[in-house]
Amino acid sequence: MKALIVQPLVLLAIAGCSAGQDRAVAERAVTEFHHRLDAGQFHEIYASASDDFRAAGTEAAALRLLGAIHNRLGLYEDATPRGWRINYGGGGSTVSLSYVSHFMRGNLGEDFTFRVAGGTASLVGYHVTSDAVMAALQGPAQRAADAPHPRVVVEEGDGEAAAAPPPAAATR
Fold first, then answer.
1. Please, which residues have CB within 8 angstroms of residue 77's CB and are 6 or more apart in sequence?
2. What domains are defined for the chain?
3. Residue 53 vs residues 86, 115, 140, 145: alpha-carbon distances, Å
4. Could you tell me the CA-to-CA distances from 165 to 151, 154, 172 in Å, in that order?
5. Helix spans in the chain (H)
6. 16, 137, 159, 172: which has the fewest C-beta neighbours closer than 10 Å?
7. How many CB atoms lie within 10 A of CB 163?
8. From CA 143, how far away is CA 34, in angstroms rounded?
9. What is the pLDDT of residues 3-57, one digit of tens each?
């Protein structure tokens, strides 16, 4: 009977150790991500991510997002953890880490998902929450379409603003 009780306890202890190790590996990967972001090494972030990450979107879209974060918010300073989760499966674990990250010019909600196997973390998902970054990602045409009427449209390049009348209603 003792063997039946001890065996699950040993498995729980091993899983607990693995959870701490996998989380630490993922946290180091977040630190490396921010070093690369600060250095403008956006291609390196994309290229070192998992195949799943790269299949989810184009490199151009990823570089545009990372550039918007870097340009709009500046250098990374520190982060406040919001939570973490670890899921175990065949071939390793999936570690999700959530932060409110503090940059020179603002804050950013960041959610990272890493696949951890053999002491290495591979980025699977990266999601951000920031009105400033989302506004930077919208082109002038999208900002104009979203603006209330009458609207002010800023043309790229000349810095001039011009009032534009609301679009005419379609009639039949």
1. 102, 103, 104
2. 2-140 (3.10.450.590)
3. 18, 11, 28, 30
4. 7, 14, 21
5. 2-38, 42-48, 51-56, 59-73, 131-137, 140-146
6. 172
7. 8
8. 29
9. 555 454 434 434 444 788 999 999 999 999 999 999 999 999 999 999 999 999 9
